[in-house]
Specification:
The protein is built from nine helices and two strands; from the N terminus they run H-H-E-E-H-H-H-H-H-H-H. It is mostly helical. 17% of the residues are buried.
Length: 232
């Protein structure tokens, strides 16, 4: 036997087994890299279950600062003051329609927020804005004592809205009084620009009656507050 041939054969077998061992001994990292697939210029790597992380995102509610809360409350108060001024303007305009001194045919459209508030305060929009009479006789009856647009009836509705918005808060009640004053003043200017004259007497009488009721209501409120303070 050729000794050199045997040695050559054994060396070849050894080398083959060694190569097989090297192939099978690839690291996990190298195996993972083999899973990498190249797609154009992008690289896609197949993820494993361990790679996936559950989403834990939760929306974070921003806490308003003291200044932001105060500003929000002021905006709400101004919106309610604007509402009562608008209500006064619309109601006085309806009185003037019944007197034949207004050319407007209907109350302008209102937002859902406004109609919802009026519905809560009065029970319905129709009670806040009673329908207007269509005849001279009906118009005269509406502005006379006991009519839907008489001094007392209009004062009732304006005070109902003011008290609903203010609640038991004396400060808010004063805000409503100020808003009513501004409402009548602004309505007077609008009427004067349109007719070159001041508000009709029925509107002036309505204003006087409302202020009398505010005086009475705020007097009672002040008395109640003083009694509460004295019992503490």
């Amino acid at each position: 036997m050729d000794i050199a041939g045997i040695k050559s054969t054994n060396i070849s077998i050894y080398d083959t087994k060694d190569d097989t061992k090297k192939i099978n001994s690839k690291t996990d990292t190298e195996k993972a890299q083999e899973k990498t697939q190249t797609l154009g210029t992008d690289t896609f790597v197949k993820s494993t279950e361990n790679d996936a992380e559950p989403s834990t995102y939760k929306p974070v509610k921003k806490k308003l600062s003291t200044e932001e809360v105060a500003e929000l409350k002021e905006d709400q108060a101004n919106a309610k003051a604007d509402l009562i001024k608008r209500f006064i303007a619309d109601t006085l305009n309806n009185q003037n329609k019944l007197l034949g001194r207004s050319k407007e045919n209907e109350v302008p459209g209102m937002s859902k927020e406004t109609t919802d508030l009026l519905t809560k305060a009065f029970g319905s929009i129709e009670k806040a804005y009673p329908p207007l009479a269509t005849t001279p006789e009906g118009a005269q009856q509406a502005i006379s004592e006991g009519g839907a647009y008489s001094v007392n009836a209009v004062a009732d509705r304006i005070m109902t809205l003011a008290k609903y918005i203010a609640g038991d808060d004396p400060n808010k009640l004063q805000q409503m009084r100020d808003a009513v004053e501004k409402g009548f003043s602004e309505a007077g200017l609008v009427f004067k620009n349109a007719t070159s004259s001041g508000l009709p007497q029925i509107c002036e009488d309505t204003h006087t009656e409302i202020m009398r009721r505010f005086d009475e209501l705020q007097g009672k409120t002040s008395t109640n507050n003083e009694q509460t303070e004295s019992t503490k």
